[in-house]
Every structure is written in structure tokens, then in C-alpha cells.
Design a protein that fits this description.
Length: 495
């Protein structure tokens, strides 16, 4: 069977090609540098000291060049402006002292204002902290009471989460769990207009589904929420619930408990959820059930009528020999379907990953993940990671990212600039180019050299095909060599 396609550019033989939405075929990726992250020199906030149990740091961009960094140092809140030059040089402005706080959740309101939802250091109270910046980088700080719950809510960083309601500028949801009694998960919607606060009705999970840490919450569509936590009454099984929110009122759509093989277990100490496109979310968690505690990426879709989760692609992104030091990992979605994840590796001491901070970029094309090669910290900075998870922020143009983390031994706050080169894969993987003008859609593809018969081969985000090794082992399988020159492709490509 033969098919004819127009080509967008000359095809590269022995590389994976894609079918674009315009019906043309093209090499992967669409432009050079796809999915890359280039680490820049780090700067240390050396005079921030405390203990790992009380420290928490955040980093949030105002615009393209200015960001706000915070640290709760023994509950004393400190903040400063961080400036990032075109060449990624970092400048730290003077420190502002601002009261006491235990947890901070930053939300950019404009290019000159960031709002923090703060768990205060007194009782069970929460407050809002508004930080505005002027043209001379001076900060103005205002605080507004938010609410005091009827009973204590967990302030564990694996359980307390606050998100902005998609499609709104002023609506937010606080999610946590009661620390006594049935440990029910609760969600409180609230609205912030100017400096005025309006509270919605608190939603309390049914007592039959009370939970335990960890948890996370994400918007999967406009007005639609997904919540993960552990169902303590159901043999520590993970629970995924979906809700609708309308004008500060939350209603349940769907709720069910799932096998540990689907969503991990209560032993997971970190679980990230972020929205992709078209009513989907991406999950990033460490799986303690598998030897080596590998990190896992998972796409979850949702039935738009019922809210029922539909578990799609699942990718193990760290090999079993490279354990993840949890909870020192995090995830950032840099574009609609492109992101990168960070983790500290505890591999064998002879492995290049040993005790190193490692980034990997990924693209979510439809129901599949395509992984870029790992990027390892090259200066040893990551060997001094704390148990507090890092904080990320993208600048306005989405070309630079900052990562802020607390050093394990000195408790100093480290900042590292990252150049982000995004790539959205708008096409679908079609097959492998045999020449500049022919593509094998299925079956045997020829023209290779030096293949090892019987070995499995994979491809990365750039369409490169290679044998499974330390770099490519987490990429998508393409097929198996039948001789030194020929590869038998798996039939899922054409499907």
C-alpha cells in the first residue's frame, strides 16, 4: 500500500517523521532546539538560614526580567527582587522583612503585582499578602485577613494546596484536610477583588472518603476540578474526584477509588498535577511500588458529561537504578502540551546521575509522551538539595525560568536561571523516513547501519533513533532490529 504526502522541508533518512495538521509530513521537531533547557550559573542567598522544618521558598516573575523571591526563615518572612539580565546574569536586590508566615502560595496578578495566600504563624489563620513593584524596583507590601477555619487544617506542603479557578482573574480554591477527627478533605472557594475578600461555601468530602497525605488539585477545564488523595478507609488506595465550581459553589461530579497501579500509593511523598490542553491533566509522581522508586508521568482525560477520569498514557521517566529523592522533585508545564520535570537522583555511585539534580523535557502529543534526553546539573549544586521541594517560575515571554531551592546543609537559598526552548508537537508520529522522499508507515524499515539484531530501539523528541541506554531509555519504543540494517516497527505508530 502506498500513500502520497506533501513534505514540509526535506526529510532526514532513518529518523521519525510526523504528520502535521495541514496534511503535510515533516521531521521532528518543527524547529531546532525543541524541548531543551540550558542551565545558567547559580546565585546563592547566603544569609538566609534556618531549619529544614521551617523553611519554605518561592520564586515568581513579575515580567520578563524581574522576579520576587521569598523565604520563610524560622517563620520570619523575607523577600527580595531578583533581576535576570539578557545573558542570564542574576542580581539580588536588598531584602525586605515582612512579618511571620509558615506557607506561601504566589499568584501573579499583573506585571507589577503578586498576591500570596499565606498560612500565618499564629493559630489557624490565613491572610493575603499583596506585593507591588514600581519602576525603580521598590516594593510595597499590604496584608489582608483571609479567613480562620472552624478547626485546624493541615499545613503540610504535601496536603495544603491553593489554585486559581481557570477562566477567572479573582477566584481561588484552598484545598486541605482537617487534622483531627475523620481527616476529611475540604475545599474553600474565595474571591479577591481589589483588597476585598468574599468567601464561598466550604466543601467537605463525604466521611466515607476521608484521606491522608499526599494530595493535589488541578483544573482540567473551565469550571472543572480534579482532586487526588488517599482513601484511608480503602486500604490506602488512591482516590480521584472531580468537581464543578460556579460562582464560589463547588459540587461533586464523580468520585472513585483506583488500584495503586493506576495512581501510586499513600507512600508517595509528592504528587504533581497540571493542566494540559483539551480537558486533560498531566500527573508526575514517584512510584514506591516499583524497585528504584521511578518517577512516572501520566495523562488523565475526563468525560466532559460525567467528569469520570479516563487514564491514558503512562510513562516511567527514571530507570529503576536511579531512585528519586522525594519530595525534592517538581514539574512545570511551559506551554500547552510541553513541560519539564526535575528530580534529584540517588543512583549507584558509579553512575553519572549519582546524587545529581536532573531535568528532562517532555511533550504530550495526544495520548503519548515523547521525552528529550536528560540534562544533569554539572556543577554539583544539586547535591545540596533540601527536603523542601523547589519552586519554579517562567518569565512573561516564557523564554527564561528560575528555580529556587534551599540547601540541605547550609540552608542557603539557591537560585538558578534556565533558558527554556519550547516545542509543541502539533503533528502525530507517522513513521520512519527511509530516504528524503519515502516513509515506512509500518513493517520493516531499511537503511540503518550497525543495528544489533534483537535489540529494541527508541526515539526522542527530535526524531533520533537509538538503542536503549542511560540517555534514551525512557523514550518511546520504535521497534526491534531484525538485522544490522533493518528495523521492524511496532504497529502502534500507524494506529
Amino acid at each position: 500500500m502506498k500513500r502520497s504526502y506533501l513534505s514540509e522541508g526535506q526529510l532526514t533518512p532513518q529518523k521519525v517523521v510526523q504528520l502535521l495538521e495541514n496534511g503535510k509530513v515533516a521531521n521532528l521537531p518543527l524547529k531546532d532546539g525543541a524541548g531543551k533547557m540550558n542551565l545558567k550559573p547559580k546565585t546563592t542567598w547566603a544569609n538566609a538560614s534556618g531549619t529544614t522544618s521551617s523553611n519554605n521558598c518561592t520564586i515568581t516573575f513579575f515580567d520578563d526580567t524581574r522576579a520576587l523571591q521569598t523565604i520563610t526563615d524560622n517563620y520570619n518572612l523575607k523577600m527580595r527582587v531578583v533581576k535576570v539580565a539578557e545573558d542570564f546574569a542574576i542580581t539580588l536586590n536588598p531584602i525586605y522583612q515582612q512579618g511571620q508566615s509558615r506557607m506561601l502560595f504566589p499568584f501573579k496578578r499583573s506585571d507589577t503585582e503578586i498576591m500570596f495566600v499565606s498560612k500565618t504563624n499564629s493559630g489557624w489563620s490565613y491572610e493575603l499578602i499583596f506585593v507591588t513593584i514600581d519602576a525603580n524596583d521598590n516594593l510595597t507590601i499590604e496584608t489582608v485577613p483571609l479567613f480562620t477555619p472552624a478547626q485546624s487544617l493541615s499545613e503540610n506542603e504535601m496536603t495544603l494546596h491553593i489554585i486559581q479557578v481557570e477562566g477567572t482573574q479573582n477566584d481561588f480554591i484552598l484545598c486541605s484536610q482537617y487534622t483531627s477527627g475523620a481527616l476529611n478533605f475540604v475545599m474553600l472557594p474565595f474571591r479577591v477583588e481589589g483588597r476585598a475578600v468574599t468567601l464561598g461555601n466550604i466543601f467537605v468530602h463525604d466521611p466515607a472518603y476521608y484521606g491522608n497525605s499526599p494530595s493535589n488539585i488541578a483544573m482540567w477545564d473551565v469550571g472543572k476540578i480534579a482532586l487526588y488523595h488517599v482513601n484511608t478507609l480503602s486500604n490506602q488506595s488512591p482516590l480521584m474526584s472531580t468537581f464543578a465550581i460556579n460562582d464560589l459553589t463547588i459540587t461533586l461530579l464523580y468520585r472513585d477509588t483506583y488500584p495503586n497501579s493506576e495512581l501510586g500509593t499513600t507512600l508517595i511523598s509528592r504528587f504533581f498535577m497540571q493542566k494540559l490542553s483539551k480537558g486533560r491533566i498531566v500527573l508526575n509522581y514517584a512510584d514506591p511500588q516499583t524497585v528504584g522508586t521511578p518517577q512516572v508521568l501520566r495523562i488523565v482525560e475526563f468525560d466532559k458529561r460525567t467528569g469520570k477520569p479516563i487514564f491514558a498514557s503512562k510513562r516511567t521517566i527514571v530507570a529503576n537504578s536511579k531512585a528519586v529523592s522525594t519530595p525534592a522533585f517538581t514539574m512545570l508545564v511551559t506551554a500547552e502540551n510541553v513541560g519539564f520535570s526535575y528530580g534529584k537522583m540517588n543512583a549507584n555511585s558509579t553512575d553519572p546521575f549519582y546524587n545529581k539534580g536532573t531535568f528532562w523535557a517532555w511533550g504530550a502529543d495526544g495520548d503519548e509522551f515523547i521525552m528529550a534526553p536528560y540534562l544533569i546539573f554539572d556543577d554539583g549544586a544539586s547535591t545540596d538539595m533540601t527536603q523542601k521541594y523547589p519552586s519554579y517560575s517562567l518569565n512573561k515571554s516564557r523564554t527564561k525560568a528560575l528555580i529556587s531551592f534551599i540547601a540541605l546543609n547550609s540552608f542557603a537559598v539557591n537560585i538558578r536561571a534556565i533558558e527554556v526552548v519550547e516545542q509543541q508537537h502539533v503533528g502525530k508520529v507517522l513513521g520512519v523516513a527511509e530516504s528524503t522522499s519515502t516513509i515506512a508507515l509500518s513493517g520493516v524499515v531499511n537503511g540503518f547501519q550497525g543495528l544489533v539484531p534483537g535489540s529494541e530501539y527508541v526515539y526522542d523528541m527530535n526524531g533520533n533513533i537509538a538503542a536503549i541506554d542511560k540517555v534514551y531509555s525512557q523514550n518511546k519504543p520504535i521497534g526491534r532490529a531484525i538485522n544490522s540494517n533493518s528495523l521492524l516497527m511496532y504497529d502502534y505508530l500507524l494506529k
